[in-house]
Amino acid sequence: MRLTLRPGKLRIMSAELPDVGPSTDVRELLLTYLDFYRAAVTDKLSGLSDADLRTSRLPSGWTPIELLKHLVFMERRWLVWGVRGDQVDEPWGDDRNGRWSVPPEETVEEWLAALHQGGRRTREIVAGLPLTAIAARTGRFADRSTPPSVTAVLFHVLQEYARHAGHLDIARELIDGSTGE
Fold first, then answer.
1. Which string of DSSP letters, residue by residue, matches 54-110?
2. Can you give the pTM of this predicted structure?
3. CA 53, CA 140: separation in Å to the nearest integer?
4. Within a domain: residue 11?
5. Are 163 and 109 contacting, i.e. CB atoms less than 8 angstroms apart?
6. Under a CB-based contact definition with an 8 Å cutoff, are residues 158 and 30 in contact?
7. In the chain, N or C terminus with fewer CB closer than 10 Å?
8. Would you say which domain of life the source belongs to (predicted)?
9. Secondary element (H or E) of residue 52
């Protein structure tokens, strides 16, 4: 399949990679990149119609709004339920019968707000812990003899964001030709 772009349709995404300089502050590096990827996800979803948000362009069948909801739940599972061990309602609420699911009454605006609220919550959780701290032995990691460290959890969440932001790059380009830099 060859993608041809109509004049005036190309949109370059605006989220810019952070300039971290020679930083050795691992906590701040991880959190800064998580903030960047949340901004990139927001950017990739901005301007899409509800139909585009809820239509899959890929054989796997996921839609952009489903991926957004997945990211919100994923971060909550790993940080709130995982690291802190707090009880959360429906930790797997993004998954219905083995598929990501977003009912019609749920909007992209509410899921984007939840995404950024989750980012603020992640920063609060991580601020009070050494990166070498071990996640709670309850909740997400109740069945593990050795739960992961805060560093390992942040790294996992970062790779999830990076991977799925790339997926959204592809989906957005297929929708309207917009590309990331």
1. T---STT---HHHHHHHHHHHHIIIIIIIII----S-TTTTEETTEE---TTS-HHH
2. 0.89
3. 29
4. no
5. no
6. yes
7. N
8. Bacteria
9. helix 50-53
